[in-house]
Every structure is written in structure tokens, then in C-alpha cells.
Specification:
It is a single chain. Helices cover 28% and strands 18% of the residues. A four-stranded parallel beta sheet has the order 2-1-3-4, covered by helices on one side. It has one domain. With 82 residues, it is an alpha/beta fold. It has three helices and four strands, in the order βαββαβα. The model has no long low-confidence stretch (mean pLDDT 82). Pfam families: UPF0180. InterPro entries: UPF0180.
Length: 82
């Protein structure tokens, strides 16, 4: 699974790399985006048109730790935004 992580989440990026996840730039094809939805304008990511055509998993890093995020990535389970 290829994961794009917003630039402001450097610590989370390093922890996921240590756990063996493939972190990519927006110029590469990715399956999931991890960002802080309160601080990230998702419309800016639209210029990165390399997400998979069958959908993308968007994870709000908000109050989640690396274990929570890994659980979401493994199970692809998450609560709705609203």
C-alpha cells in the first residue's frame, strides 16, 4: 500500500517508515492520504491526480497515534467524518 502523508506530519511519517510502510510523494500513485483535516486543505491535493481510480482512504491524523493509524490502514475501518 502506498501512502501519502502531508508534510507537517514528519514524526508520523518516520514511525510508519520504521514499521515498513511505503510513503510516497503526490507524484506517485497512492492508496491512502494521512493528514490533519483541520489544518489541511484537501482541495490542494487535487493537483495530485495519482490516487487510485477505485477510491482512496483519507485518514484524519487529528488525535490518533501511530497505532490507531496502523489499525485503520490494516483494517480499512474508520468512522465517518460527520
Amino acid at each position: 500500500m502506498n501512502i501519502f502523508i502531508s508534510n507537517d506530519l514528519k514524526e508520523l511519517r518516520e514511525k510508519l517508515i520504521e514499521r515498513g510502510y511505503n510513503i510516497v510523494s503526490c507524484n506517485e500513485v497512492y492508496d491512502a492520504i494521512i493528514c490533519n483535516l483541520k489544518e489541511t486543505d484537501l482541495s490542494q491535493l487535487r493537483m495530485c491526480n495519482n490516487y487510485k481510480s477505485n477510491g482512496i482512504l483519507i485518514i484524519d491524523s487529528g488525535s490518533k497515534n501511530v497505532d490507531d493509524i496502523e489499525n485503520i490502514l490494516i483494517n480499512r475501518s474508520y468512522s465517518s467524518l460527520f
